[in-house]
């Protein structure tokens, strides 16, 4: 009998609702769920590939151990015991920080793993923590921490009501939005234009988003900071600073004006590649728009001065009165309020509380930047990383200088990967612990619901029963964690505590924890009590706990969501300031001290050397970072891992369309076909990341046949973002020649 199953797609941030038609364990069709109030039936081609993931013969279905005779299946008991014992033994011998851990992007899409993250990290007891954050959104988080007092309190473009949407370094038509969960971006942009709103894109490439925009400006890679400073300067010079009701909340206005005064459009024009007139026009249009949203993403945060730029984008929204205003950039009120929960537990984030061993890079949110990961493994001495844990990450392809990282992984005493595949990274592991597949677990999105353009909530049941003898991500983490805690417990009391935590978490499970989070949220009665907790302080907890218990039957809980399999719309975003702030005195310091010195020291960059081009990345709708290339339906057709360059550059370098070209830096080189196109700025090339699968031992048959090469073999760790030392992945100087 054919059946229909409804769930959210978890591949990117857009949270599209799916309708999956199946007969038993056979998937017949994957379509958009028209009854999903948020995505209204919209999907992209990747959703259909969920069935390829599910059926993929290369996907691991039981733990494996690397031996002299290749990978051998082992039992969960053995795999978890051995992993915990090895990690424990290495920490005993070399100290706690001898174990490193890396969390990849899909961790954020897996609620079970997310809810288990804090206790799992605690059990690992190491400061050698890393994640894709430092190859991605760290500057946004740093800016929200500085301005709003909380690293996860992101202002989200109110795209459905804005009249002017300025996008820098984001390509939502390909990425489907990021730190802006926005299913059906195309439809929403069309609606913006239909109500006479304008979409303006600033990008070194005429992207898919630029092509549907009302206005597109090429910008020289890595120079957004100068453009943003000049826009700010013009607002002050032309007396167009109008923060509206925010005026009462912000400090440092005079300091900001003073600091941006030198950055006139005329001074920065040649550097950024926009004329002074165009910059003034942009500033004027932004100021004039009745409701505007300025938004930046990966192209800005992963390039030079990403931290200053991310901060300035929020500043522009504040100066024009668009923060926390309908049609501007707004805060969400999610049903599972991760911002409030983290805030209450005191974990609003932190920066530079300690530094990394080899390079002295600052910690952010308890992590070091990935730009030092290989060096922490390769540099001998006390604190050297000797063992490594990865969860849903492929740093060999996603972090700078993949070859060096491979060398480092090869020299470890022990490595374990919680992952679905034997890929470029996990092939170095001693043990791989594969979780259930995407359709075999429930789906809930605490992070992406918290960054969505509307307040929405949805919980999806698993489509398929958990196969016998398999474990979910959270169960694997719990298994490792309780073993480690047992091994580390020195006293009877500690052993008892470990047992209690283990018991509590296994009894709660992912569903129990989601339920608890929803009950604590703003749509439950308890949530109101919870809000009071924040205001009145933790000492009122006993009283509050009592209220919570009494209110068990009221308001939002897991059951509410189980009864609404298409999801629930909780309404448009609403103004939340100043209550939502976590800063001292609930104020917004426009120029947080952290940015003052780097801003004062900022100079215009040296011109690019004559023989060099600046390399940027590129995302494609049919590709997803490094790990979806084993789906034939997604990779079929003309290869997509190529070097896009402008006809002028191609002519100068004697490069024909389709010819093999070598892209080279001090770090390494790759050779790929040339894609000659007017869509890219002269002097710039674009190469997508996440490719380079044809490496020995990689067990991804389809991906290996459409291998491409890894752009991160060319990008080194020599260029790090100056404030945070996070990876610089865009605007990399390279040479290009016919191969
Ligand atoms: N199909 C698909 N969707 C995805 C992903 C994927 O791999 N494939 N990945 C997901 C992830 S992990 C993320 S973080 C998001 C990212 O979401 P986006 O940030 O929207 O994704 P990108 O396409 O990388 O967009 C970055 C843009 O910045 C431009 N750029 C490069 N350098 C500069 C610069 O110096 N200045 C300016 N102004 N622009 C610059 C690039 O040309 C590019 O168009 O996408 C998510 N969604
Ligand atoms: N040059 C360049 N480099 C980049 C970028 C760029 O734009 N340019 N983008 C950066 C960005 S924004 C990001 S987010 C990073 C991404 O970097 P990573 O997170 O390191 O890499 P992914 O390709 O997302 O790898 C995901 C891994 O998780 C596994 N996996 C998938 N689903 C699950 C699951 O449910 N559970 C478990 N346990 N494993 C799972 C996959 O098999 C794969 O090994 O790359 C960064 N690197
Ligand atoms: S846009 Fe993202 S969430 Fe929507 S179907 Fe595609 S991959 Fe899935
Ligand atoms: Mo990302």
TrEMBL record:
SUPFAM superfamilies: ADC-like, Formate dehydrogenase/DMSO reductase, domains 1-3. The keyword tRNA-binding does not apply. Pfam families: Molybdop_Fe4S4, Molybdopterin, Molydop_binding. InterPro entries: Asp_de-COase-like_dom_sf, MoPterin_dinucl-bd_dom, Mopterin_OxRdtase, Mopterin_OxRdtase_4Fe-4S_dom, Prok_Mopterin_Oxidored. The keyword Iron-sulfur applies. Residues 1-58 form the 4Fe-4S Mo/W bis-MGD-type domain. SMART domains: Molybdop_Fe4S4. Keywords: Iron, Iron-sulfur, Metal-binding. One of its GO terms (molecular function) is iron-sulfur cluster binding. It comes from the Bacteria. Belongs to the prokaryotic molybdopterin-containing oxidoreductase family. This is Oxidoreductase.
């Amino acid at each position: 009998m054919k059946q229909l199953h409804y769930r959210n797609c978890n591949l990117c941030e857009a949270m599209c609702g799916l309708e999956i038609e199946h007969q038993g364990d056979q998937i017949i069709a994957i379509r958009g769920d028209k009854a999903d109030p948020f995505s209204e039936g919209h999907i992209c081609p990747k959703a259909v590939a969920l069935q390829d993931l599910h059926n993929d013969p290369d996907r691991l279905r039981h733990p494996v151990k690397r031996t002299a005779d290749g990978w051998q299946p082992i039992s969960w008991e053995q795999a978890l015991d051995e992993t915990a014992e090895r990690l424990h033994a290495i920490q005993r011998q070399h100290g706690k920080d001898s174990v490193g851990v890396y969390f990849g992007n899909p961790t954020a899409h897996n609620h079970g793993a997310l809810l288990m993250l804090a206790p799992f990290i605690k059990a690992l007891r190491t400061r050698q923590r890393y994640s894709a954050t430092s190859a991605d959104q760290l500057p946004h988080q740093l800016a929200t921490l500085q301005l709003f007092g909380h690293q996860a309190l992101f202002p989200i473009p109110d795209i459905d009501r804005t009249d002017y949407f300025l996008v820098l370094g984001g390509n939502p038509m390909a990425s489907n939005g990021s730190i802006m969960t926005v299913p059906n971006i195309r439809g929403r942009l069309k609606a913006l234009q239909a109500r006479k709103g304008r979409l303006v894109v600033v990008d070194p490439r005429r992207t898919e988003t630029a092509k549907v925009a009302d206005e597109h400006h090429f910008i020289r890679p890595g120079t957004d900071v100068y453009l943003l400073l000049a826009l700010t300067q013009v607002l002050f010079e032309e007396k167009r600073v109008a923060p509206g009701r925010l005026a009462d909340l912000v400090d440092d206005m005079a300091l900001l004006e003073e600091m941006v005064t030198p950055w006139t459009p005329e001074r920065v024009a040649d550097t950024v590649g926009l004329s002074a007139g165009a910059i003034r026009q942009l500033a004027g249009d932004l100021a004039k728009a009745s409701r505007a949203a300025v938004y930046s993403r990966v192209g800005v945060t992963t390039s030079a001065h990403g931290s200053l730029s991310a901060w300035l984008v929020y500043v522009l929204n504040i100066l024009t009165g668009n923060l926390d205003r309908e049609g501007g950039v707004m805060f969400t009120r999610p049903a599972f309020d991760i911002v409030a929960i983290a805030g209450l537990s005191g974990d609003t984030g932190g920066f530079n509380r300690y530094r990394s061993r080899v390079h002295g890079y600052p910690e952010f949110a308890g992590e070091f930047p990935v730009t030092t990961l290989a060096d922490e493994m390769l540099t001998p001495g006390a604190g050297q990383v000797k063992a490594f844990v990865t969860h849903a990450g492929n740093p060999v392809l996603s972090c700078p200088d993949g070859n060096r990282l491979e060398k480092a992984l090869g020299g470890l005493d022990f490595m374990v990967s919680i992952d679905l595949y034997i890929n470029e990274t996990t092939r170095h592991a001693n043990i791989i612990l594969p979780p259930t597949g995407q359709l075999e677990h429930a789906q809930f999105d605490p992070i992406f619901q918290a960054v969505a353009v509307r307040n929405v909530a949805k919980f999806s049941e698993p489509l398929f029963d958990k196969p016998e003898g398999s474990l979910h991500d959270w169960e694997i983490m719990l298994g490792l964690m309780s073993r480690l805690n047992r091994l580390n417990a020195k006293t009877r009391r500690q052993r008892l505590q470990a047992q209690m935590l283990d018991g509590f978490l296994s009894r709660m499970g992912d569903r129990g924890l989601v339920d608890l989070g929803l009950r604590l949220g703003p749509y439950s009665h308890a949530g109101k009590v919870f809000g009071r907790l924040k205001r009145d302080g933790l000492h009122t907890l006993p009283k509050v706990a009592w209220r919570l218990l009494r209110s068990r039957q009221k308001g939002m809980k897991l059951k509410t969501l189980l009864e609404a399999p298409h999801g629930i719309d909780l309404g448009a975003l609403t103004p939340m300031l100043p209550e939502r702030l976590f800063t001292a005195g609930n104020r917004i310091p426009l120029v947080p001290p952290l940015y003052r010195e780097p801003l004062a020291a900022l100079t215009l960059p040296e011109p690019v050397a004559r023989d060099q081009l600046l390399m940027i990345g590129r995302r494609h709708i049919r590709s997803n970072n490094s790990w979806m290339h084993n789906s034939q339906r997604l990779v079929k057709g003309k290869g997509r891992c190529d070097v896009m360059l402008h006809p002028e550059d191609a002519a100068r370098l004697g490069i024909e369309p389709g010819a093999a070209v070598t892209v080279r830096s001090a770090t390494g080189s790759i050779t790929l076909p040339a894609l000659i196109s007017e869509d890219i700025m002269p002097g710039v090339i674009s190469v997508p990341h996440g490719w380079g699968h044809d490496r020995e031992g990689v067990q991804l048959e389809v991906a290996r046949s459409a291998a491409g090469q890894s752009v991160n073999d060319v990008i080194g760790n020599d260029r790090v973002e100056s404030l945070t030392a996070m990876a610089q992945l865009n605007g990399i100087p390279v040479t290009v020649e016919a191969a």
